[in-house]
Every structure is written in C-alpha cells, then in structure tokens.
User: Fold this.
Amino acid sequence: MKNKFWNETVKKNFNNASTNYLVYSNIQRHFAKNIVSLLKELNIQKGEWIDLGSGTGLLADEIEKEFSTKKITRIDFSRNMLLQNKESSKKILWDLNNGLPPSIKNCSLMTSNFCIHWLDNPEKIIRDWFRKLSSGGYLVISYPTINSFPEWKQTCLKTGIEYSGLTFPLSKDIMKSFKSDEIFFTKKYLYVENFPDVYKLFRSMVNVGAQSTKCKRKKVYELKEIQKFWPKGETNSVNLTWEITTLILKKS
Assistant:
C-alpha cells in the first residue's frame, strides 16, 4: 500500500511538470546526448528500439536525430509526459514497476535515462529488462548514484535537519547480477549544477517533477537554516553535485 501511494505521488508530480519539463531538464539533456554519442559506437542488430521511462521524449528524440531511420517506442507511466511526445511517435502508457509491456518483443536496444531510481526495485527490474533483450542486444542506462548531493547531506549533518532527498542506487548493487562479459561499458561522471540560493535549487526539482520525497515537508525555518549552512561559492551561490553512472550491458 505504501508503494502504491508513493508511485501515485511520483506520477502526479511528473504529470504536473510535463509542460515545463523540457525547459528545465538540463542534466537529463546532457546525459541523453552522452548516451547518443555512445550508441554511435555500438553495432546494434536489427530489432525494436525502446526508451524506458521516456518522459517527454527527450532521449528518444535525440536518438532519432542521430539514427534517422529508427523509430523509438516511448514507454512511461505519466500520461501527460507522453502527450508531450511527437504525435507520430509510438507511445505506451505503462508502469515499469510491472515489468515490460507484453507487446515488447525482438528488442535489440533498450535505453533509460534518469528513470530507474524512481522504481520500487531497480536491481530486479534491470535484470528483467536485460533478460528480454534479443541476442546481441544492448541495455543502456544513466542514473544518479548514492554519492550524489554531498552538499545537501553535509548541510543536514551540520544542522541536524533530516535529509529529504532520494536514496539513489548503489552502482555495485545494479551490476552485481551481471557477468563481466555482459558489462560492456560503465563510467561515472560528476555533474555540478549552480543556483543563486537553495530556494531556486529546490524549485528546479519541482520544475521537472522530481520533488517527491518520503520525508515530511520542510518548514520555513528549516529551509532558512539549510540556506544559511549550505556551502557557498565566491558569489554566495550554491552548488548541487550529482554522480551519474552510465552503464551499457550486452546480451550474448
């Protein structure tokens, strides 16, 4: 029951952010382009290409720009996000916590960008995705790791205020089910966002629908404390550091 309530909260926030998502999704766009640059180096066999947790189609659109003969199937649980995709695109409204849609077959490429940390059991779900790839197929994912947001965590330790960000996956937990010859590529990246203050930092999460938390909503005095003790740059601005893993799995 708890998971159902959480999933509905996440869905509601993404639905509400759908019309503004593309304007504010800078980090998602950066790693979408990174994924496309990696795809250009792969020998992808014939078959269906799907984007899991596609949102507004940011990654799918980038792939189609580079691979003009391919049509990407976009799968997401947010109806409003899917409505932002091109009308001509193939879209499937589906909750990935329930596995893959039954219609997905003969899939030679699965991609997923900034999605798996919203799923109930990402380690299991990624194993299921991999099993359903066709022989020689690739699964390419980017996701924030548990080492993200050190400034936020440090500030919470200083102030005694509960950290209310997500608990992101451990890369070793994601990869532990796969053999060494199935892990085609893995790399960690640091990405730093800069904001005038923590209020705009947290607003940036709302703008892309990523504000869902299982913690109590912060009170005004707590936000003021967080702003006061958050590490500041020379211009008194604040940074938010992400650690992102990009992983490519290849099925033999």
